[in-house]
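Troubleshooting: if your tokenizer reports a length mismatch, compare your output against this known-good record of 420 residues.
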Amino acid sequence: MHGIGTWLERLFTHDFFPGVNPWVYWVKRPIFTLLIALAIALVCSVFVSPVALISCAAILAVILLGYGWPQVTARGLAARLRFLERRVTEGETAHAIVAVRNDWPWPVWGVTLEVDLGGAEPAAVALAKVAGWSTVEFTWPCTPECRGHYPRQTPRLATSFPFGLTSAARDAAIERPLVVWPRIIDLDTLADAAETRPAEDLFSENRIGDSGDMLGTRPFRNGDSLRRVHWACTARLGTMIVCERQAAVLSAVRVVFDSDPAVHSGSGPASTLEQSIRLAASVCAAYQQANAMVECCFGHESIRVAPGGPGLTRFLDTLAGFEACAHDHDDCQHTHAAKACRRIHHGNCGVFQVTITTRRGLRVRTEHRHVHGDQLWLVIDDGDSAAAVSHPAGRVVTVGSATTPLPSFRRTWRHLCHAG
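Known-good structure output:
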């Protein structure tokens, strides 16, 4: 019996002639049923009884009201959208407020606000009744999953009341947009300062750090890099001894992430490009909070992360608004289409550089190749099964997988910093 039911279901649901769908899909629209009913009522009024004209008038009134009323209603509506929060991070909840003004003396039902919050389809928020000659505010929570400036397109206030035959819409004004930052991992350790370079070679004689001249020795503490172990003293005393050096007044580090879409895979918040941006933001934030001179390079941009909270805010705002484009596209929509990709000049090539890319990007290496300082390559495993790649200068570390590199990144970074 179950087999017969499955067979019947396939018989009545299978699309036997997909090629004719564009020609017959219009039959599914409600107006088609109303037109058929109107034609039948007209035939009955002519050949059966004139009383059928009442049905014709009723059907015609439904059609006129269904197509005309939404247009009239939309002309009397106006909406303003704002977000309570100015900035949030990916995955955090923001609160959107829309104020709808009704200039008609009668109430309005069936109003929907369509807002593009980064999903596959614009989010549709159904609003309750809006009384005549009034302004009503509606609040709802939203959780953007990907960085950016929201809403990405102009919101639309639409209505199809009363019969849903057609929809009329008006653009809503945006009073206060929302900036969504990339998600950041709090890194509690930094790479050993033997790799980083002090800016302008300035050291402090009163501060103990990891650069400059050696000031003395001390017992090993959990978290010290193995690069700093004084092996002669360790062998003589039988316990781990590390060297203490001068602290740099200002260390310098450069973070580069590969922004060419050609070397990335996936789409949306799970793409390797978005994962690269999150890793770059995490590393830059960690060094910036440690008072280092941080430079972030991607695509056509080379940004100095200014110290303090305002500097980090401006940097994350820039990442939130970044839109990637391939360097070899002649029809690039950005204003920098005619510019060549910025290369790192030889004057500042000596700093420690962290490059974030994918396995495909490691093979192609299209951005910022001319570097003479120490490099650390953080490679996101994008599943590229191409032939083996010749390793570039510096250490190459694979970070998690293309879908979930962030949970394992803190552990990987801590191991790099501790083990050197």
